[in-house]
Amino acid sequence: MIIMCDTESTAAEPAPDELIDTLRLSLIAGVGPLMRRALLDRFGSSRAVLGAAPRELCEVQGVGPKLSRKIAAACDEIDVETEIALCREHGVDILVEPRGDDSQPGGDSHNGYPRMLREIPDPPGVLFLRGSLKADDALAIAMVGTRHATRYGLNQAERLAGSLARAGLTVVSGLARGIDAAAHRGALDGGGRTIAVLASGVLNIYPPEHGKLAEEVIARGALLSEAPPRMEPLAGGFPQRNRLISGLSLGVIVVEAGDRSGALITARHAMEQGREVFAVPGRVDSRTARGCHRLLRDGAKLVETADDVLEELGPLVEATPRDDGQIVRHPAELQLNELEQKVLAAIGGEATSVDEVIAQSGLPVQRVLSTLSVLEMRRLIRRLSGTTVVRM
Prior knowledge:
Blueprint (H helix, E strand, L loop, with lengths): L1 E2 L13 H10 L6 H11 L2 H6 L2 H4 L7 H13 L2 H11 L2 E4 L18 H4 L7 E6 L8 E5 L6 H17 L2 E4 L5 H11 L4 E4 L13 H9 L1 E5 L11 H11 L3 E4 L7 H11 L3 E4 L10 H8 L3 E2 L3 H7 L7 E2 L5 E2 L9 H8 L6 E2 H8 L3 H13 L3 E3 L4 E4 L1
Parallel strand pairs: 4-5, 4-8, 5-6, 6-7, 8-9, 9-10
Antiparallel strand pairs: 1-2, 2-3, 3-7, 11-12, 13-15, 14-15
């Protein structure tokens, strides 16, 4: 479910009861994503959870007397209507995690709840959005690192983010000082899209000096948060936020990170979520390189260029449509030139003869054969025999 909060068209519309109940449940202190799921699995709906007796609530593992009383009192103590009115006033959209029949086939829809987040173990029940989400934001890569970045780290973050954005990937980060800000700026300078995930509310930009950068991100992507729109940033909110940065992405690139950097928490989330982890090497005598070098020793993929990232990412769970009409099944397709794309488009998911590829592409035989070799090296197709190929 999504509540579109365009101030001109929907300001007078009442919020559906289902949204009110879902939002109220998500705003109860102590009801995190996993607890919310456990409650919904037990009672079936947010309204049923809020109407349950404390003794019934205590039957759910992890719910004690204190939390059960908070849930039972939520209808009287949490003013959801004011939050919804605030969102409408400021153009903040409210995205609710689909459940059961609310699931949207085919992945994301315009401004819909991100499909990538539905794959993680603890997706947020509610997201607040400024800007817009697109279907091809499923082709996203996260870039994170220390707030105390060196000039080398900032340069590498901007360079890599710009290259990845030009290739067609959306760059996700946390709007923090240092590497995060450089990643957003690099993506914007590269003419691409970028998403900032906040630990504060989307109407309370942190750090405050990034207000202008946040507006640029909104114009070419989105600000997202699971916190209420005006919430202050709390220390415990940053690790929680990091799981969303990795969850929105196919992989996470750590550019600079010390031994205790929050970027390493994001990398750990990525591993737990089945995402790829990449690291940019630094100077051996730099404290900000220690975290990256540790990740590399533990098996992270070394990154020097955008191609290192695109070649390592595996096939997508679902094919992703782009604005130009191209259907992407594998991120490595973003590296292809026009001729290579033409040959790949002629190959189906089942065995396709080389003669059929030649006929459909309209290209000379030798050109098709040499292009097939390139596509095979990039692991986009597989030869079944000397005369047939299939897409990976």
